[in-house]
Design brief:
Number of domains of chain B: 1
Structural class of chain A: alpha+beta
Structural class of chain B: alpha/beta
CATH class of the largest domain in chain A: Alpha Beta
Largest sheet of chain A: 8 strands, antiparallel
CATH architecture of chain B: 3-Layer(aba) Sandwich
Radius of gyration of chain B: 18 Å
Strand content of chain A: 15-25%
Number of strands of chain B: 7
CATH architecture of the largest domain in chain A: 2-Layer Sandwich
Radius of gyration of chain A: 22 Å
Distance between the termini of chain B: 43 Å
Number of domains of chain A: 2
Oligomer: heterodimer
Number of strands of chain A: 20
Shape of chain B: globular
Strand order of the largest sheet of chain A: 15-11-13-12-18-19-17-20
Helix content of chain A: 25-40%
Bound molecules: flavin-adenine dinucleotide
CATH superfamily of chain B: NAD(P)-binding Rossmann-like Domain
CATH topology of chain B: Rossmann fold
Largest interface: A-B, 40 and 28 residues
Strand order of the largest sheet of chain B: 3-2-1-4-5-6-7
Number of helices of chain A: 15
Shape of chain A: globular
Strand content of chain B: 15-25%
CATH class of chain B: Alpha Beta
């Protein structure tokens, strides 16, 4: 049985909420360690909780396990085998997409799905079934996973696409067990550059119209939106579409070394930023300047980090929000619910909710993950300082609107969702519970998120509360 | 689990009959709170709070016996409550006894009782509570202190000193608990028009229980460890603490 080495405070990327867990020891021989871990899980006394944690890039409490054990990504780093014939990579779950890219882009291979940061682990990418700018074309991360090894209380097994546990794990936020390694397919690329088409729009209607019309002609598409703009400019955006550049697209200088890849971290945010640094005025000024600076319409060649991971250039940028932290609200509404989307954007704008460059994206077909987030439609993500006045009421109200429209909130970003709405937002929750109940009847793999949202147990039907709150908020001044 | 905006799901209230505490719980049950455990001595008062809560919310409301003056049983009972309700994520200490200086001065028994309920009991309870939360790796303790505990005044020094003990213990405990996942918020309300004070004349900067409750909710979202309510009270107290004694004597309290 692993010793309780040291107890440590863990939080999400938004720095709130946090809780303390005991770190599993990492100093043993990897092979022995995994066996020991499986053994520990199998013989864990009732009430033990354990969770795998990646790089902590989920925003809320998804990777927290209060009072339990946490195994971190340092525990899973022994396998890294790439097979160019099958274009498949077998790697331990603790490797980050950053490491995978550094090793394989120079060989001409790219990951099929990358989120807005490359500092996520393979385990975290599967557990959240993450999406990238190409979701409308290539779907979510799990689409490109062949199989993975999972430690559950009853076994240490290779799980493949025909197993219900595979689909419970994709989007299951670590609550099906510990992924130790996975086999993923990679994408052949000629260069490490992206040919980017930039298009500025005047307002949200134009943004939606353009994305609907043009997204399908590009592999990658995303819109950065000024959520503080109002009136005729409501939802004005800068859309960037992208395509992997061919060698012919590159200027001679770049063509010399078409697969060069060496992103660098240029800045480090200080840990002492006051909580008011990012306030209404500074965020508005930033959004304004950034929108003005963007070209109306242009085609350019950009590096992979510049196009996919611009925020990674400043390490620990989350500290800029100060001690009180921030949260990300990412929701999604189905196709046909454009009116709801616009009404929500309007609500944020009217409430003067400060958010740095909100991100709008169009999703394609869902994966089969029971709790996987994407489904055909629109997703919008906003980073909002916790200090924002009336934030709790505003987001509660929007939760209802999203649920009503058949949409949902992303667990990987969540830190405050109304628990009663989860079954409505995730209609396959019961199916997921059945699978997980079978593999982990004692509820060992239960994160703080899982507890907060009662994901494992079904007793959160407080209809009256939901209705009164809904009615109260519906009538409130924020609507 | 407490969420990013500091909202609890299962709260333990010590001094379930306290006006501020019930105003606070009134708001919480309309937010994320699904279970309230009222702990105290007087079942009849707690039952009133219980039925009042249940009239507008479907949160479960439990009542348990806990006596701040019964020091022997306090720690084991606290542990028992945490075992019975493993989801407790927030504890509010609102039990307290307001003195009557004129009588207190003449009766050593009353002085003892005041310290029993306002200082010794809380010290035992807060320590027990912190250790339970530490095991759980998360939790928040809200301590309803008083500006009277920040600067003890001559007009009610027995009460003031008993509150001062708990106030300083809580602040230091908050520091001691850093890194454990347990947070402490000390709340120093000014003059609150409540049951406890309705016989007294209204002071300037008087506030209401609803306003104090709203300030607490805001402070929890911002992860503060010490607040005054209303917040102007902070500057009043600062000035009060630093004026020379000779002038302070001229202030009529
Ligand atoms: C700047 C930024 C941009 C982002 N952009 C996007 C985006 O565009 N699209 C998107 O989908 N997401 C995005 N995210 C969210 C991020 O991709 C996910 O939260 C991802 O899960 C983080 O991976 P991680 O390794 O940090 O995992 P953690 O945050 O540490 O953990 C996330 C979840 O995965 C589970 N987990 C981790 N490792 C394992 C394992 N080995 N076995 C089982 N479960 C495990 C944890 O228990 C937890 O539930 C972004 C985050 C940031 C900070």
């Amino acid at each position: 049985m692993p010793q309780l080495s040291n107890t440590q405070l863990f939080g999400g990327w938004g720095r709130s909420p946090s809780s303390a867990s005991a770190l599993l020891p990492t100093d043993e021989d990897p092979a022995v360690k995994l066996d020991a871990l499986a053994e520990f899980v199998a013989s864990a006394p009732d009430g033990t909780r354990l969770l795998a944690r990646g790089m902590g890039r989920s925003y809320g409490d998804a990777a927290n396990c209060a009072g339990g054990y946490v195994s971190t990504h340092y525990d899973f780093r022994d396998i890294f085998e790439f097979n160019p014939t099958s274009e498949e990579l077998r790697a331990s779950s603790g490797f980050s997409l950053d490491e995978i890219m550094r090793r394989l882009i120079p060989e001409g291979y790219f990951v099929y799905v990358t989120p807005g940061t490359r500092y996520v682990t393979l385990g975290g990418a599967i557990a959240a079934d993450i999406h990238g700018k190409n979701h409308h074309k290539d779907g979510s991360f799990i689409n490109h996973v062949e199989s993975f090894e999972l430690i559950t209380p009853s076994s240490r097994i290779e799980v493949n696409r025909s197993d219900p546990l595979f689909w419970a794990t994709a989007g299951g936020m670590g609550m099906t067990g510990i992924i130790t390694a996975a086999t993923i397919r990679l994408k052949k690329v000629q260069t490490s550059y992206i040919k980017v088409t930039t298009q500025k729009t005047l307002n949200v209607s134009e943004t939606i119209e353009m994305m609907q019309r043009l997204d399908d002609s590009f592999t990658y598409s995303v819109a950065w939106m000024d959520s503080l703009a109002s009136g005729n400019s409501l939802g004005r955006s800068v859309i960037t579409w992208g395509e992997h550049a061919s060698e012919a697209d590159l200027e001679p200088k770049l063509a010399d070394n078409p697969l060069s890849y060496g992103p660098s971290v240029k800045l480090k945010a200080p840990d002492i930023a006051p909580s008011w640094l990012l306030n209404m005025a500074s965020i508005r000024a930033f959004n304004e300047a950034w929108y003005r600076k963007a070209p109306k319409n242009k085609v350019s060649i950009e590096s992979i980090p510049a196009y996919f991971h611009p925020l990674d250039a400043v390490s620990d940028w989350n500290r800029l929000y100060g001690r009180t932290g921030f949260l990300q609200y990412q929701f999604q509404v189905p196709l046909g619910q454009e009116e709801t989307l616009i009404s929500i954007i309007h609500r944020f704008s009217r409430n003067r909710t400060p958010s740095f460059l909100s991100v709008l994206k169009r999703f394609g077909p869902s994966s089969s993950g029971h709790l996987s987030f994407p489904q055909p439609g629109w997703t919008l993500a906003l980073d909002i300082p916790i200090r924002t006045k009336g934030l709790s009421e505003l987001l509660d109200g929007i939760d209802f609107q999203v649920a009503e429209a058949g949409g949902r909130v992303y667990f990987a970003k969540d830190s405050r969702l109304i628990p009663e709405l989860v079954p409505k937002m995730y209609p396959r929750l019961d199916e997921w519970r059945d699978v997980v109940e079978k593999s982990d009847p004692k509820g060992i793999f239960l994160s703080d998120l899982g507890r907060r949202l009662s994901l494992r147990s079904g007793e959160v039907k407080k209809a009256s509360l939901v209705e009164t709150l809904g009615a109260a908020i519906g009538k409130g001044p924020n609507l | 689990m407490i969420d990013a905006l500091g909202q609890p799901q299962c709260v333990l209230i010590i001094g379930g009959g306290s006006d501020i505490a019930s105003a606070l719980v009134d708001k919480w049950v309309d937010m994320r709170c699904q279970r309230v455990i009222l702990a105290g001595r007087s079942f009849s008062v707690m039952e009133q709070v219980q039925s009042q809560l249940q009239s507008h919310s479907s949160a479960k409301v439990e009542i348990v016996y806990l006596d701040m003056a019964d020091h022997e049983s306090l720690a084991p009972l606290t542990a028992e409550v945490f075992e019975r309700f493993p989801d407790i994520d927030m504890a509010v200490l609102a039990a307290g006894q307001l003195g009557d200086q004129a009588v207190d001065e003449t009766d050593p028994k009353r002085i003892e009782q005041m310290f029993d309920v306002n200082a010794t009991g809380p010290a035992i309870f807060l320590t027990a509570c912190a250790s339970e939360f530490k095991k759980k790796g998360a939790g928040t303790i809200v301590v309803l202190s008083s500006v009277a505990g920040e600067k003890v005044r001559r007009s009610n020094y027995v009460y003031g000193a008993s509150k001062a003990a708990t106030d300083s213990l809580s602040l230091a405990m908050s520091e001691a608990l850093r890194g454990t996942g347990v947070n402490v918020l000390v709340v120093r309300p000014g003059f609150v028009s409540t049951k406890m004070t309705q016989h007294l004349a209204k002071a300037p900067l008087a506030t209401t229980k609803e306003k104090v409750a709203a300030d607490i909710i805001d402070a929890l979202a911002k992860k503060k460890t010490l607040i005054w309510s209303p917040k102007e009270m902070r500057w009043v107290m600062l000035a009060y603490k630093h004026i020379p004694r000779t002038i302070a004597r001229k202030i009529p309290f």
